[in-house]
Amino acid sequence: MSQVFMFDALREATDEEMQKDDSVFVLGEDVGHYGGSYKVTKDLSAKYGDLRVLDTPIAENSFMGMAIGAAITGLRPIVEGMNMSFLLLAFNQISNNAGMLRYTSGGNFTIPIVIRGPGGVGRQLGAEHSQRLEAYFQAIPGLKIVACSTPYNAKGLLKSAIRDNNPVILFEHVLLYNLKEELPDHEYFLPLDKAELVRQGNQVTIVTYSRMRHHVMQATNQLIEEGYDPEIIDLISLKPIDINTISRSLMKTHKLIIVEECMKTGGIAAEIIAQINDDYFDLLDAPIIRLSSHDIPTPYNGNLEKATVIHPDQIIQAVKELIY
Predict the structure, then answer these.
(1) Which of 129, 134, 196, 231 is an active site residue?
(2) What is the pLDDT of residues 207-254, one digit of tens each?
(3) Which of 60, 134, 172, 231 is catalytic?
(4) Does the active-site annotation cover 60?
(5) Helix 268-279 and helix 243-253, axial crossing angle in degrees, nearest 10
(6) Known catalytic membership, residue 134
């Protein structure tokens, strides 16, 4: 076991898969000699050359289209968005091409492409660099979407995503790259469609993902000291949502809180609530509590930015209100 930063865990996953399979390559803005904005591709261009770690112009729609074309011909591209907000410029390619070509070709083409990069609310990055795009992409048929939250699941998810024959979007949070964790020395893979049961409990189910996992765990540590017993689920998979893991938890707790950094309107929590109401409403003993970001562009001002997202004290208050 060795202590590894999240950005290094992602780099290790990329390096291992490129070493094993010559069809795997990386492209994006500043991924080459610069090593990526968050150093996920550091030194890979020196090891594999400029054609397998390909620096692109600032033209997201163009290089996304090129990557999808490469995937159709049998290559396995990893596209890094320097900031996931920029990939809105490639929304047409991701939705109409990556998501649909396997279906519209009658299965003649597979699209083994990974789209990954930093997103979420950082620290004073401004509205256009603080996007949470998971809800934007969730409605697109044909995509798989995962959100990593630790170095361990970041590496295991990326390796699985690279080997998958479908388009996978991997959301990384800009404030988690320096998170450090022990990783096993042996090779491992994690499923792209399963949630993680982070903590077992009996009083209330708290569902979360990405950076909010750590806010939930901070709140949980205090709640445990006060005698509460929450069950914590990290979604990991945002499309498809692992509703079975959530429903099994609700069979014990009968109470649900969803904590997300996504906007409240049309967010991931909204989809979970819809699925619970459709199929598992009878498991609930109380209304579902949804803790989401405000429906506004993220302010640049630090105090205002902080006020738009959920913090541990709000989670603690919600648990107490729901139980009593």
Answers:
(1) 129
(2) 999 999 999 999 999 999 999 999 999 999 999 999 999 999 999 999
(3) 60
(4) yes
(5) 70
(6) no
Per the omega criterion (within 30 degrees of 0), is the bond before 297 cis? Answer: no
Asked if 210 and 147 count as a contact pair (C-beta separation under 8 A), the reply is: yes
Question: How far is residue 145's CA from residue 143's CA, in Å, rounded to a whole number?
Answer: 6
| 266 Cβ contact partners less than 8 Å away, ≥ 6 residues apart | 135
List the alpha helices (DSSP H) in the chain: 6-20, 44-48, 60-72, 91-92, 101-104, 134-138, 151-163, 212-225, 243-253, 268-279, 302-308, 312-323
Instruction: Tell me the two tokens of residue 143.
Output: 């995509």
> What pTM does this model have?
0.95
Q: Is 227 left (phi over 0), alpha (psi -120 to 50) or beta?
A: left
What are the structural domains, with CATH classification, of the chain? 2-183 (3.40.50.970), 196-323 (3.40.50.920)
How does pLDDT run across 266-320, given as a tens digit for each residue? Answer: 999 999 999 999 999 999 999 999 999 999 999 999 999 999 999 999 999 999 9
